[in-house]
């Protein structure tokens, strides 16, 4: 890959000079307690200094003393220090603390570093920096980063977390400027062997199962009668293929769910390559009394004894063959990698055919998608000119230069209230996105954390920013079906009070913001939770849609869920998502759109496209609502994002893409950001901006003998420059969606 050395190039000397002042910063005073407990206080508890504790069993890891936060009555009690006035806004800091716990028979607990921020308008905010699982046996290091975007009046850093009655011990706590790690170079793939199966004897020819072996005491044999065609998702990636042998591995005598065939592939895996996983699977009755309910089948990898998901599918005993598809990527050198097939209950026979694991040429996929995009997203445009000078037309060609200045395809991002205090964040946001969604600020647990105390101030601030910049906004979310996300006071309500609270939430939200949100995620993640349905009955989900539509008919009402597009979760397969939507519609719910969150790892286009094709039969617009990708290598991260952007843009059923953030420390996933915490656009961000540029159409040529200039272009805003004998004429026009050619009339006589 060619690297542009002129972009944001920083020499080692410049880089070091940039950080020479960090040693002079003293964010935390008395970090090692050399000056006793000066500058430290207890957060609703007592703090004590020790040289040792527990009869000499606990001594400092470094220095001579450590502090104890004791007499804690609640989890938020701990040791704290105010750092107001000693930090710079928009500067990334790294916190390193050495901690452990003691007392009350608690042997292990989470210790968390948190910032309490009081903003100038007296708005309180809590920022989680990091947490660690601490024990009463050893000191452990707690490490994380934070950035403060605004100009708060007060900031306090404190430790919290363990249950009441147990103590937090702190040996040291240091805050310093976080150095920006230089990005790793793009991976070099020597002989990547795209499309070549790394599984040996996948078709078990000649009746032999070697080098397959069993996990557990199950038995392997070879059967005949498997499909002779490759599974569709693999075929989509690999293209035409010779017929398969029709053999399969039969696994019998299974007494545990994890029993099945396995094969070592350690030496065949290449780091940072994306691998597609594909197979046919089926299950049989097996021993008498085995389960007849639907069963999960999982192709998994054991990477140094850690489970890695290679794809899952739900099948039924006696059913037909099912395709299983997934993907994975390894970014650290493993000692041992084993692939195995598992899942069905004990006693159920398992059949696997044509298991393939092969590296994917994702750049070739993108090249194909770009050709497809021309058909899906572009419209024929005819510039029809009048008023040409007939005498000069034959002698002087009229040159036309067309440049698209804005693509109207919805491309948005998640934002948080704290983000908009940073003018650099706002600048990138407003220049590169035309839609937005709020991370947490519209969720019920944010607007009404305590019963009856409703506060929409954060959401109002964010909505004002978006409206002021002509940015459309999705409403996320009215309810969240996963019980762990429901605030405690709501969980404690009886059925009658809960129904009243649900109706009040709908009325408050939908009337307050009537006409202002273009979409709403009505009841988030219904495939992964059922709190409201369990408490209020099956009909409550459709009721939520119907009441919302009655209160505000203008927004599209969405379902929204995760792992729909990647084959990783049988609970949210496209088939189950389709059933959910059809069930809601059968109850009269006004389902207006299908939300695919898109928190995806190592994306493979064929797998994503397969899910989109299946969901498109619903005839509803599909949006990627929370798209993010993650890789420790910024170039690979950018490639992941490029794959997803083009896959969505090339599919006719997809009508919008929302990223789940872009700024470091403002995202829910690590190694997912496009912009560093202090504003530098990283390699993934550069790739994102390059894709955006490719989504702008350009054309150049001369007016033909019919006084026309024709081209194909994306929807959006254009500027056209016409060079005539009399001078240069400038005009703008807008291309809307349409099936017929768009004719733009331009009169040159009056210009």
Automatic annotation (TrEMBL):
<dbReference type="InterPro" id="IPR003305">
    <property type="entry name" value="CenC_carb-bd"/>
</dbReference>
<keyword id="KW-0119">Carbohydrate metabolism</keyword>
<keyword id="KW-0677">Repeat</keyword>
<dbReference type="GO" id="GO:0045493">
    <property type="term" value="P:xylan catabolic process"/>
</dbReference>
<feature type="domain" description="GH10">
    <location>
        <begin position="396"/>
        <end position="691"/>
    </location>
</feature>
<dbReference type="Pfam" id="PF02018">
    <property type="entry name" value="CBM_4_9"/>
</dbReference>
<keyword id="KW-0326">Glycosidase</keyword>
<dbReference type="InterPro" id="IPR001000">
    <property type="entry name" value="GH10_dom"/>
</dbReference>
<keyword id="KW-0624">Polysaccharide degradation</keyword>
<dbReference type="InterPro" id="IPR044846">
    <property type="entry name" value="GH10"/>
</dbReference>
<protein>
    <submittedName>
        <fullName>Glycoside hydrolase family 10 domain</fullName>
    </submittedName>
</protein>
<dbReference type="GO" id="GO:0004553">
    <property type="term" value="F:hydrolase activity, hydrolyzing O-glycosyl compounds"/>
</dbReference>
<keyword id="KW-0858">Xylan degradation</keyword>
<dbReference type="Pfam" id="PF00331">
    <property type="entry name" value="Glyco_hydro_10"/>
</dbReference>
<keyword id="KW-0378">Hydrolase</keyword>
């Amino acid at each position: 890959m060619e690297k542009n050395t002129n972009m944001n190039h920083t020499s080692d000397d410049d880089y070091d000079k940039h950080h020479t002042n960090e040693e002079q910063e003293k964010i935390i005073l008395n970090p090692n307690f050399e000056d006793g407990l000066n500058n430290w206080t207890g957060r609703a508890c007592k703090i004590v200094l020790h040289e040792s504790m527990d009869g000499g069993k606990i001594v400092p890891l470094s220095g001579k003393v450590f502090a104890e936060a004791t007499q804690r009555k609640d989890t938020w009690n701990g040791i704290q220090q105010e750092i107001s006035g000693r930090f710079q806004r928009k500067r990334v800091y790294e916190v390193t603390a050495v901690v452990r716990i003691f007392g009350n028979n608690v042997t292990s607990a989470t210790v968390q570093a948190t910032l309490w921020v009081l903003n100038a308008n007296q708005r309180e905010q809590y920022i989680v920096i990091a947490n660690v699982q601490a024990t009463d046996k050893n000191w452990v290091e707690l490490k994380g980063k934070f950035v403060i975007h605004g100009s708060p009046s007060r900031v306090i850093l404190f430790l919290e977390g363990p249950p009441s009655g147990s103590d937090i011990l702190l040996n040291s706590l240091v805050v310093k400027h976080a150095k920006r790690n230089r990005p790793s170079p793009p991976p070099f793939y020597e002989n990547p062997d795209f499309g070549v199966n790394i599984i040996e004897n996948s078709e078990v020819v000649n009746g032999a199962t070697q080098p397959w072996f069993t996990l557990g005491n199950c038995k392997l044999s070879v059967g005949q009668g498997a499909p002779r065609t490759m599974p569709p998702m693999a075929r989509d990636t690999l293209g035409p293929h010779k017929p398969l042998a029709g053999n399969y591995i039969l696994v019998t005598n299974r007494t545990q769910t994890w029993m099945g065939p396995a094969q070592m592939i350690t030496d065949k895996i290449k780091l940072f390559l994306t691998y597609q996983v594909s197979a046919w699977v089926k299950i049989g009755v097996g021993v008498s009394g085995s389960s007849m309910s639907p069963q999960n089948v999982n192709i998994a990898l054991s990477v140094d004894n850690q489970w890695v998901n290679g794809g899952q599918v739900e099948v039924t005993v006696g059913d037909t063959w099912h395709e299983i598809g997934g993907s994975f990527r390894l970014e650290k050198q493993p000692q041992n990698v084993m692939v195995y097939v598992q899942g069905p209950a004990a006693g159920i026979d398992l059949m696997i055919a044509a298991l393939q694991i092969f590296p994917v040429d994702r750049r070739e996929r993108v090249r194909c998608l770009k050709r497809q995009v021309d058909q899906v997203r572009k419209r024929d445009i005819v510039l029809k000119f009048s008023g040409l000078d007939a005498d000069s037309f034959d002698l002087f060609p009229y040159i036309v230069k067309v440049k698209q200045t804005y693509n109207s395809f919805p491309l948005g991002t998640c934002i948080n209230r704290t983000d908009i205090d940073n003018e650099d964040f706002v600048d990138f946001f407003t220049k590169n996105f035309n839609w937005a969604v709020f991370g947490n600020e519209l969720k019920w647990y944010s607007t009404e954390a305590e019963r009856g105390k409703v506060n929409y101030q954060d959401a109002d601030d964010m909505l004002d920013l978006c409206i002021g910049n002509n940015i459309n906004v999705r409403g996320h979310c009215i309810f969240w079906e996963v019980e762990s996300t429901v605030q405690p006071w709501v969980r404690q309500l009886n059925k009658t009070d809960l129904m009243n609270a649900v109706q009040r939430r709908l009325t408050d939200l939908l009337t307050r913001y009537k006409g202002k949100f273009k979409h709403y995620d009505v009841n988030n993640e219904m495939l992964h939770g059922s709190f409201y349905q369990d408490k209020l009955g099956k009909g409550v989900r459709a009721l939520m849609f119907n009441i919302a539509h009655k209160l505000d008919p203008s927004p599209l009402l969405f379902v929204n869920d995760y792992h729909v597009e990647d084959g990783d979760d049988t609970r949210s397969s496209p088939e189950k998502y389709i059933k959910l939507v059809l069930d809601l519609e059968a109850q009269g719910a006004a389902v207006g759109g299908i939300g695919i969150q898109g928190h995806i790892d190592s994306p493979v286009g064929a797998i994503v496209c397969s899910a989109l094709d299946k969901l498109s039969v619903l005839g509803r617009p599909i949006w990627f609502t929370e798209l993010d990708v993650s890789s420790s290598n910024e170039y690979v991260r950018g490639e992941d994002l490029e794959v997803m952007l083009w896959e969505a843009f090339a599919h006719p059923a997809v009508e919008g893409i929302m990223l789940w953030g872009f700024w470091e420390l403002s995202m829910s996933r690590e190694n997912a950001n496009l912009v560093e915490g202090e504003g530098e656009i990283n390699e993934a961000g550069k790739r994102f901006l390059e894709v955006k540029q490719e989504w702008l159409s350009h054309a150049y040529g001369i007016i033909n003998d019919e006084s026309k200039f024709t081209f194909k272009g994306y929807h959006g805003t254009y500027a056209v420059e016409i060079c005539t004998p009399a001078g240069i004429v400038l005009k703008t026009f807008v291309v809307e969606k349409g099936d017929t050619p768009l004719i733009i009339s331009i009169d040159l006589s009056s210009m």
